[in-house]
Amino acid sequence: MSVKLGMIGAGGIAKSHMNALKKVERAKIVSIFDLNTEGAEQAAASVGAKVAESADALLNPAEIDAVFICVPQFARGDLEEIAAKRGIHVFVEKPLGLELELVARKEQAVREAGILNSVGYVLRYYDTVQKAKQYLQGKTIHLIQGFRIGGSHPAPWWSQQHMSNGNLGDAVTHQIDMIRYLAGEYKEVTAQFGRNTIKTLKPEATIPDAGAVTFSMESGAVGTITESCLSSFHSGSEIKFIGQDFFLQLTGNGKTLTIIDNTQNVTITSKQDPVYEQDNAFVEAVAAGSGDSILCGYADGMRTLAFTIAAYQAAEERGTVKV
């Protein structure tokens, strides 16, 4: 059976999903909505879909089985709740939102409706990340070091803290989530954020240009995450998991895995397209009526958001905040 999909949003991330879904045998995108009508028309033409008159009109259970919500976190309103009430399965891009209380309300609606749900923490779908997860089972980690350094997003909304939650909330959320996925739940967090450069280069911006976050895990491990969104000559991402008897490193957003211990010193680079793997898993879940293939659901994604919220709170209060 084919799975009929609606797409809310026709920007860059939506196009990434559309390109992946073209390769998913069961997937059929039937309708697209975006406030940018021209963008929606171009996207619809590329996949043979129709342009919906509104997001509400697109969320029609007689026409679609599931929806991909690919609009920015500040612009989602109550889309997830509407879909849930109408029995439409939902894929929602990360991060889930800006306020934990609002996202918790949506999570409750999704859970009580019993719909299948997936969140776009795409890096979980790399085979390298799965190998790392398997390797770390039962290992005692005492130190975690993570960073993500790069340039800023071109969209004007991205530089506004109340619309994006900054680089930590919008981009580094992938590293935050990876640590959770591989090493367990966070316990406490402290943080500092700076505006040393951005206040001059982009005076209208309200986001930090750099952040340094320290944390503890429920397991007893401790760690750091550092980040910058204004680095012109260096970029990249890395997470190191360090134990007395092993060293595990993920670079390139999880694409390359290195494991060193007493029996091995190996480096593996994935050849997978994690967007395809993620979208295929969601479509197959909808077709089968089971979420077993989904690696991050709404409740799980909400716990990743909680870390970001706690980090900003800790920085504002100049203290330690429980996650």
UniProtKB/TrEMBL annotation:
UniProt-listed InterPro entries: Gfo/Idh/MocA-like_OxRdtase_N (IPR000683), Gfo/Idh/MocA_Oxidoreductase (IPR052515), GFO_IDH_MocA-like_dom (IPR055170), NAD(P)-bd_dom_sf (IPR036291)
Protein name (Swiss-Prot/TrEMBL): Gfo/Idh/MocA family oxidoreductase
Domain GFO/IDH/MocA-like oxidoreductase: 152-244
Taxonomic source organism: Paenibacillus hemerocallicola
Residue ranges occupied by any Gfo/Idh/MocA-like oxidoreductase N-terminal domain in the UniProt entry: 4-121
One Gene Ontology term of the molecular function aspect: nucleotide binding
Stored Pfam families: GFO_IDH_MocA, GFO_IDH_MocA_C3
Top-level taxon: Bacteria
